[in-house]
Amino acid sequence: MLKTIIVSNRLPTKVLRADDSLTFQPSEGGLATGLGSIYRRGDNVWVGWPGLFVNDPAEEQYVTEQLQADSMAPVFLTEAEIRDYYEGFSNSTLWPTFHYFTQFATYEQSHWEAYVAVNEKFCQAVLAQSGPDDTIWIHDYQLLLLPEMLRRTRPEASIGFFLHIPFPSYELIRVLPWAAELLRGVLGADLIGFHTFGYMRHFLSAVSHTLGITAHNGQLEVGQRAVRVDAFPMGIDYERYAQAAASEAAQAHERTYREALRDTRVILSIDRLDYTKGIAQRLRAFELLLERYPEWREQVSLIMLVVPSRDQVAQYAALKEEIDELTGRINSRYRTISWNPIQYFYRSLPLEELASLYRLAEVALVTPMRDGMNLVAKEFIASKADQRGVLILSERAGAARELSDALIINPTDTSRLAEALHDALVMPEDEQRQRMAAMQALVERYNIFSWTKLFLNQLAYTKIKQQTLATE
Ligand code: GDG
């Protein structure tokens, strides 16, 4: 029977070492949910790093067996590999470049070599799991070389690739010393997906400038193969967020928060710690709101949840300091004995608490400098059963292409952002409901399950079309 193999840097289960024992913690991420029904079906399997270092062969075997029982195949990586391939090339070269932060990008030959070697390691792991005609769906920027590596040994396989982050303008791609190799790597796939048409166009332009291959109707001729390129905006598990928000637990948390906040109006900000998310700019806009509109003092609170991420990397540590400092400054400047403008949490919260924050907030402030999609915006929408609430959304998040009923802003424009906050706080309920209803219909319909189905159907269709062309 033909199999489907999902490949991503991380497995949907994280293996943690505490004292002398190992625990297996399933991830709550969107991708894990969306693909859950796929990788657990039949002989399908998910290939990826389990998130811990293993030096003992007996332990390696134990982890492998445990994961195998839940349709996963681990790729074990060493500390040096994680340092150079993951923190190095993936997060210090590709991540800043693809998010237009070239000032943070490093270009280390040794990181590149580790990236090639780890992609090769993933290739061997996938080959061990797959037959010649299987379907392989590869995810994200850590594995750009994998499609081509697999193609060499599996010329007949159906290979799909999806990029979760933006694909930037060719002007950024051309800065990378390894641009041609990376693009050739991705072109090993039969279907290449992006969140938006804009990213897709940038990719086609980079391929044309770098490799001299031009697209016709979203199709590239790569040797004898036709490669299809398209936009697949990723969705969320709508019901899961709607239900979590409606749950007793979320309502109880909400009541506690409301009491503590003395019924002030709530603006919400939720992100991983990352310079792409525009957290500092958002704080400045909130400060400007309080300065310009004194009537909001003691009337609004900003709940800011920042989830720790990559904080060993220098830029992330610096950003953390900047956020701490700004929050301290704003709170000390405006706080009163019974009101604190910003409630700042630096940790991650369980889903019910997250859902209670979505319930509580009247305004969600999603203002990244660049963001492939941004799922927080969609989760906020799914949580609003009474259709009240306003989303303020950066024009540079992929989600802005779909959620045109949000207040769309330029995140660099602090003054306009402060005005958007004011506009959101005074927006009539009728208008809130009208905008929210339109966005809910869209987010409910184009959810994570339809996204998965659409991509895999399109991949199967691309393959059939290739075969028909070959026999004509
Ligand atoms: C990348 C791209 C693209 C956050 N805090 C908590 C928590 N979260 C969850 C949110 C959401 C997820 O984390 C964050 O997803 P985003 O899409 O906002 O951002 P990235 O992590 O940067 O993801 C992005 C995505 O890939 C998918 O393609 O949209 O553009 O950068 O689901 O709810 N979850 C829990 N507690 C928290 O404290 N349980």
From TrEMBL:
Enzyme Commission designation: 2.4.1.15
Pathway noted in the entry: Glycan biosynthesis; trehalose biosynthesis
Oligomer status and interactors: Homotetramer.
Family indicated by similarity: In the C-terminal section; belongs to the trehalose phosphatase family. Belongs to the glycosyltransferase 20 family.
Name of the protein described by the UniProt record: Alpha,alpha-trehalose-phosphate synthase
The reaction(s) this protein catalyses: D-glucose 6-phosphate + UDP-alpha-D-glucose = alpha,alpha-trehalose 6-phosphate + UDP + H(+)
Keyword terms: Glycosyltransferase, Transferase
Organism: Hymenobacter aranciens
Coiled coil: none
